[in-house]
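Hi W., the adenosine-5'-triphosphate complex you wanted:
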Amino acid sequence: MSTVVKLGGSVITRKNEPFSARSDTIYELAEEISNYLRENKKHGLLLVHGGGSFGHPLVRECLEKIGYVNTQCFARVAFYMDLLNHLVTEALLASEVPAVRITPRSICWGVNYGECDFGVVGKLMSSGLVPVLYGDIILSGSESRVLSGDDIVWYLTRSLGLKKVIFVTDVNGVYDKDPKLHKDARVLSNMHVSRVLKEASFWEVPDVTGGMLNKLRKSLLLGIKDVKIYVINGFVPGNLLSALEEKNVVGSILWV
Ligand SMILES: Nc1ncnc2c1ncn2[C@@H]1O[C@H](COP(=O)(O)OP(=O)(O)OP(=O)(O)O)[C@@H](O)[C@H]1O
Ligand SMILES: [Mg+2]
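Structure:
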């Protein structure tokens, strides 16, 4: 069964420190991916990563200063996202994961409905390679737009008929309410996404593309069906490997 794993920017970077990658965490996650692939050679795997502090603050600065993403901003965001992708891919290669970068701005031309040509992604995956995509700045007509890693996950899922999605995040799963404010907050699991959206409250994150709510809602907006979703804590050692191997996780197991 082919799986897409989204390595959240909240895990692979320090979101409150611009351009700060969590190298140790990236290497640990790469090692777990490698362990999984060693035992499951025939299962296709796709990776997507978020922008974290390499993407969101730059875009926000441009939007606040000039109201849109001009060519200078476009080029800078592209550069820093490529840089973060380089760090992720480097760690994957060090763990012998045959990772290969696919730059979304080269294959996507819109941000709303999956206006991307994923043909090459599917072919690379079928050849045993592990394509790595990421949240990116892209051209939609003549306008610059941010295409979130979360959206790419769902577009890939629909386009390539994937059945399993793993969101690696900095939280223990999807909470019914903010655990920082409510001691009795609990992690929701074993339910359909539409029920999660009814039962949970979501709080703001400093993201230009939204936090947990957008991650989950997009699957419904796109009419995606029969997909198992993991939202797991990427700081818990072994947690990603457990999700890949369908074992117990610290996180939410949901479906859509
Ligand atoms: N009900 C909720 N349950 C869990 N987390 C929530 C909820 N509502 C909001 N959040 C926030 O969503 C965040 C995770 O989404 P966020 O987009 O910040 O991370 P990410 O996807 O790892 O980052 P990036 O977009 O850079 O890839 C959590 O850190 C948490 O603060
Ligand atoms: Mg986000």
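The pocket of adenosine-5'-triphosphate (ligand 1) is lined by residues 8-11, 50-52, 149, 169-171, 174-175, 200, 202-203, 205, 207, 209, 211-212 (CB under 6 Å).

W.
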